[in-house]
Every structure is written in C-alpha cells, then in structure tokens.
Amino acid sequence: xxxxxxxxxxxxxxxxxxxxxxxxxxxxxxxxxxxxxxxxxxxxxxxxxxxxxxxxxxxxxxxxxxxxxxxxxxxxxxxxxxxxxxxxxxxxxxxxxxxxxxxxxxxxxxxxxxxxxxxxxxxxxxxxxxxxxxxxxxxxxxxxxxxxxxxxxxxxxxxxxxxxxxxxxxxxxxxxxxxxxxxxxxxxxxxxxxxxxxxxxxxxxxxxxxxxxxxxxxxxxxxxxxxxxxxxxxxxxxxxxxxxxxxxxxxxxxxxx
Length: 257
What we know:
Elements: H1 2-22, E1 25-32, E2 43-46, E3 51-54, E4 60-64, E5 70-74, E6 81-84, H2 87-92, E7 95-99, H3 102-105, H4 120-123, E8 134-136, E9 143-145, H5 150-161, H6 163-172, H7 175-186, H8 188-195, H9 201-207, H10 211-220, H11 225-230, H12 233-256
Helix pairs in contact: 5-6, 5-10, 6-12, 7-12, 8-12
C-alpha cells in the first residue's frame, strides 16, 4: 500500500512539474534606449508559441514563453528586435529591454563622387549597376522588381503555369509555418495586434516569408491589388488562411485523380 501511495505521489509531482514547465512565462520592461523612458503599446510576439502581448503605461509586459523561445518586439518609430528567452530570465524574473529609435539606427550612407574623364569607355565603368529594375511578363498585369533575390522570381514564374503549383511551393513546403495560421487566428491578442497594423512585419516574421512573397501569395489567392494595399494585417491573415484551406481541398482532389 505504501508503495502504491509513493508511486501516486511521484506521478502527481511529475505531472505538476511538467504543467508548471509548460505554463512558464517571462516579464519585462521595455524602455526608450535614448532616454530610459518606458514605452507603452510595444507589440511583443512569441514566434515559437504564437502568443502576443503589449506593454502597459509603465512599459511592463508578461508573455507565455519557455527557454529558447524567441520574442519579436516592435514599436512604431523604433527598430524591431528579437530576444531569446534564457534560463536566467525565467529564473530571476523581470528584464529591462531597450529599443532604439529608427533615426538613430540608420546606417551611415556613403556617397561616392564620380570623376568623369570625358572618355565614354572609361567613365561608364565608374557608374554603378542598378539591379532594382522592373520587368514585365506577358499575360500578367503587374511589373516585378529584380535584384531582390531569386526566390520570389522563381515563385512568380511558377505561378504563370499553374496557380495550384504556386500555392504548393509556398504552403506545402512549410507545414510548420502554416500550422501557425490556425494558432494566430485563435489567439485574441495576436488578432488585436494584427488588426491595428498595416506594415506586414509581424506576418512575415511568423510565417517566415518576405514582404514581396507575402503580397504575391494574396494576389494568387485572387485578391485585388487595391485589397492588398489597403487591408490591415488581420485581413491579410484571414485571406491567406482561407486560401490555404481551399488549397488543401484542391490538393486532396489532385492526389485522388
């Protein structure tokens, strides 16, 4: 009997320990790095758990997090940063985090002066090549920018032949990011944060895609250019989520045929 009681006690304590580990959280204070003043309304998102929070009037916040989770901090007019959750942070409690204003975070711009000789063959070599040109594809209404990496170009070209293939390239190869769609839709804090934003930053961070590919995803889901320009981040999330559900139905139909 004592042995059974011991086992039950051990099992109960282990369950409680795991429960406490799963329910860990971190807290902190976010300040302006230039004057140490607290920042109210800073958006904090746990990228791993897809949980959101904001700072109060005193710059304080608390959010569900475990060791090695990454928190994304963003605030209008300040440089966004990512912070790793450590054992010490959880163990010792609140931590102070400073954000840098964008005006102070800009890198120094170097302007090169061209010394022209008057000889075309010599002078033309001094002119830098601008890779950020636009090109158009027959059959598509929009122009696209080059010089931004080949990933977006390849996805755009694949969409010409079959939009379903395009969606597979985006959705099918990133199941972990796509699982976050449902988590984002279920978390009220995340939805409130997205409803007030139009910069797509939080979406690109959570879904691990760049801004150009994000816009292209929505465009391939038959949303207009005006919608893409005017929609807030929550509307973009709902559009992508609905499109993904349609894609899953379509992909099941293709696999049976």
